[in-house]
Amino acid sequence: MMSSTGSPTKDKIIVTAAITGSIHTTSMSEFLPIAPQQIADEVVRAYEAGAAVAHIHVRNPQTGQPISDLDLFREVLERVKARKCNIVICITTGGGLGMTAEQRLKPVSVFKPELASFNAGSVNFALFPALEKFKNFKYEWESSYLAMSEDFIFPNTFKTMREFCVIFSENKTKPEFEVYDAGMINNVAFLISRGYVKKPVYIQYVMGVLGGITPSPENLMFLVDYTRRIIGDFTFSVCVAGRAQFSICTQSLLLGGNVRVGLEDNLYLERGRLAKSNAEQVEKIIRIARELGLEAATPDEARQILGLKGLDKVMNS
Questions:
Q1: Number of folded domains in the chain?
Q2: pLDDT for the residue 11
C-alpha cells in the first residue's frame, strides 16, 4: 500500500464495517441490525471476518428508527468489550436526519473514541427516491423519514465544524472526514490552514448519496488527485452507497486506499441477493484484496497506520 505522498507504508489495507447506519429503514432488509445486542453481534462478526474498524450508529430497538441515545451507544460498546474484541470503534457524529449538532457530537464527549466520523460540509442528503422501490413499511416513521429528505439539507457549517474540531481535539479523537463532494476537500484544507486540525488527515470519500458525487472511476481518481494537490499528507478510504460498492471499493484498493463496506451503505452482497450480515461483505472485499496481493490490517495495525491514541485511552463505557 502506498501513502498519498508515494512513500511506502504498511502493506495492509484497513477494512471498515459500517454496521447499521441511518439510511436504510427497518423494512428494507430483515438482516439490518436494530437492537444493541444485534449491533454488537454484528461488530464482532465483522471483526472475526477481518474488519479492523466498526462504524457505529444506534437505533430505537423497537422500531429501528435512527436515534442518538447515549445509553444505547453504551450498551453496544459494553457488549463489544465483554466479547474481548479490540476492533477500532468509529462512532458516528452524523446521527440521523434532523438531529442537532449537539446531539450528534455528544457521543464523542462522553465516550472519547479513538475515531469518529466528521462530516466535512453541508449536503443535500436525499433518500426519498427509495419510496419508488419500497411501498410497504412495517413502521409509520419509515415513509415519512424518507419523504422528508426531499426538503432536507444535512447541515455542517464552518461554525459547527470548528466546534467539532475543538471537541475532537480535547478528547484526542481522530476525525474521519466524510467527503461527499469536491468542495468538502476545500473545507478540510481550510480547517488545516486555521490550525483546527493537523495533518496527516484521514479522509473517507462517500460516493453515491443523492446530493453528493456519483460513484465512478473517473470521479474517484479526481477526488484523490485533488486531495493530493491541496492537502498532500492524507490517508483515504472509500465507501459507496448502493450497487457500485464493491467495484469502486476495489478501485480504491488499486489506488492505495482503504475501504468501507457494510449494511449502512449497501444491503446486498451481489445482484438480487441480500447480505445476511456485515461479515459477508467484509469477507468478500478481503477476498478481492487478496487477489490483488493485499492483506487486511488488524485493529492494532490500523491504529498504527492512522495514528490513533489507543484502546487504553478510550473512556470506559
A1: 1
A2: 81
Chain-centre distance for alpha carbon 194: 25
Residue 110, pLDDT score: 95
- Whether 313 is covered by a domain: the verdict is no
Q: What is the CATH number of the domain that holds 129?
A: 3.20.20.70
142 belongs to a structural domain: yes
Check: CB of residue 317 under 8 Å from CB of residue 77.
Answer: yes
Residue 268 domain flag: yes
- Domain that residue 31 falls in: 12-307
pLDDT for 9 equals 44
| CB contact burial 113-139 (16+ within 10 A = b; e otherwise) | bbbbbbbbbbbebbbbebeeeeeebeb
Long-range contacts of 166-172 (CB under 8 A, 24+ apart): 166/196, 167/105, 167/108, 167/109, 168/108, 168/116, 168/118, 168/197, 169/196, 169/197, 171/108, 171/109, 171/112, 171/113, 172/112, 172/309, 172/313
Q: What angle do CA 176, 303, 6 make, to 5 degrees?
A: 75
Q: How far apart are CA 47 and CA 132, in angstroms?
A: 35
Cell of 189: 484544507
Amino acid letter, residue 253: L
Among 42, 36, 80, CA closest to 58: 36
State phi, psi for 6 to the nearest 5 degrees. Answer: 95, -5
Low-confidence ranges of the chain (pLDDT < 50): 1-9
Asked whether the bond before 200 is cis by omega within 30 degrees of 0, the reply is yes
